[in-house]
Write a structure and sequence with these properties.
With 163 residues, the chain is of the alpha/beta class. It has one domain (7-155). 34% of the residues lie in helices and 15% in strands. The protein has helices at residues 24-30, 81-90, 92-96, 121-133, 135-155; strands at 7-13, 34-39, 55-57, 73-78, 98-100. Strands 2-1-4-3-5 form a 5-stranded parallel β-sheet. Helix 1 (24-30) links the parallel strand 1 and strand 2 (34-39). Helix 4 packs antiparallel against helix 5. The chain is globular and about 45 Å long.
Amino acid sequence: MLETRTRIVLIQHVLELTERSNTGRHAVAALSALEARVFGQRDVPLKVDDLDGAWLLWPGEPEPDAALPRPSTLVVLDGSWSQARKMMQRVPVLRSLRRWSLPAPPGRRSLRASPPGGMSSLEAIAEALAVLEGEGVGATLRAVHEGLLQKQLADRGYVGPHH
């Protein structure tokens, strides 16, 4: 398990929890400073009262001013793009956070469609931690993502001895 200085709050859409392609659960297993919370559970309010000063990873935003101190807490929305937009609409605190967009890594591959600059939760966390804590952390998480991608492709019959 990777130790990081940066606290990650992963907000998972309740419908994403059972998806085979969900990368958020692998981020939970890989990072010690990651706290998973679930959006959309009946009668369980989402805890958001501790996000002051946090930054939200969100594609398509301009780069924040380099003079700004980097965040100690990152919020990552884990779900499909329509689920992520729904979480943004329904949780006002999320809309108030400073947004941070990162370029997708070159040669990026994914099993899901995404908007320009969009990445899986695990990829976004890897890219953010590469900036905040060094390339070694990012490379470790990118390798976890690549392993997941290879397994999913093999499970679907897209790679293997006959391809």
